[in-house]
């Protein structure tokens, strides 16, 4: 399965190896997010400038050497959530692996910021207008975008709901997700029926832990 993931047109050769080593690495990104969110206790969405975290995510260029150690794919699931970093009460940073043709339900983000960066393959994001209270009508699509490797996208409940899926028939896709604050992990979130707009509350499942990192609440 690993071989099918590494699709990025990374440059080869000794010069390029040195070039890659000099790049802003995933661990640099995680360090900078932790530094930005600070050391103190809790945080609220309003305390976070999402544009800053988006700019950090854009600065990172996907390199499988950084993230393959977090990679685990359960072929029986639509997608597998792997823990990269749990910044207690500040953020969750996850690596998601999407099986071919599979995707998430339509969901909200529990009043948090969600920054997603495609690391390998391609993902389609469908954004929906939030349902009106008491409405029993199909959710209306606001926008649909295909995100290629290294694309960064952002969503919050102010923007709407979304569904993410892997449009490939034979390749997995990999993405990096930054949730701040980690409200969905700590308190749950909602999924929605696209035909009726009806919501259901979901308690977040634990993320798969790498051998190096405990999953914590992710
Ligand atoms: Fe999402």
UniProtKB/TrEMBL annotation:
- Keyword Iron carried by entry: yes
Tell me a GO biological process for this protein. Answer: L-cysteine catabolic process
Q: Where is this cross-link: 3'-(S-cysteinyl)-tyrosine (Cys-Tyr)?
A: 114-179
User: Which residues bind Fe cation per the record?
Assistant: 107, 109, 162
Q: Which InterPro entries match?
A: CDO_1 (IPR010300), RmlC-like_jellyroll (IPR014710), RmlC_Cupin_sf (IPR011051)
- Its family? Belongs to the cysteine dioxygenase family.
- Name under which the protein is recorded: Cysteine dioxygenase
This chain's source organism reads Aspergillus avenaceus
């Amino acid at each position: 399965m690993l071989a099918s993931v590494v699709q990025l047109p990374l440059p080869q050769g000794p010069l390029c190896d040195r070039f890659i080593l000099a790049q802003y690495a995933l661990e640099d990104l995680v360090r900078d997010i932790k530094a930005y969110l600070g050391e103190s206790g809790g945080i609220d969405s309003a305390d976070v400038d999402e544009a800053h975290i988006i700019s950090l995510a854009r600065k990172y260029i996907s390199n499988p050497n950084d993230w393959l150690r977090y990679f685990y794919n359960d072929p029986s699931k639509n997608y597998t959530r792997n823990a990269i970093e749990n910044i207690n009460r500040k953020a969750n940073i996850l690596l998601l692996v999407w099986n071919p043709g599979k995707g998430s339900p339509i969901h909200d983000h529990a009043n948090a910021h969600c920054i997603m960066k495609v690391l390998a393959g391609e993902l389609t994001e469908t954004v929906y207008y939030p349902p009106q209270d008491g409405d029993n009508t199909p959710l209306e699509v606001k926008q649909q975008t295909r995100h290629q490797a290294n694309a960064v996208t952002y969503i919050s409940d102010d923007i709407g709901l979304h569904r993410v899926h892997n449009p490939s028939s034979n390749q997995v896709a990999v993405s990096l997700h930054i949730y701040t604050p980690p409200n969905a992990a700590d308190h749950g979130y909602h999924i929605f029926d696209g035909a009726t707009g009806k919501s259901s509350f979901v308690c977040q499942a634990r993320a798969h832990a790498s051998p190096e990192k405990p999953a914590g609440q992710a």
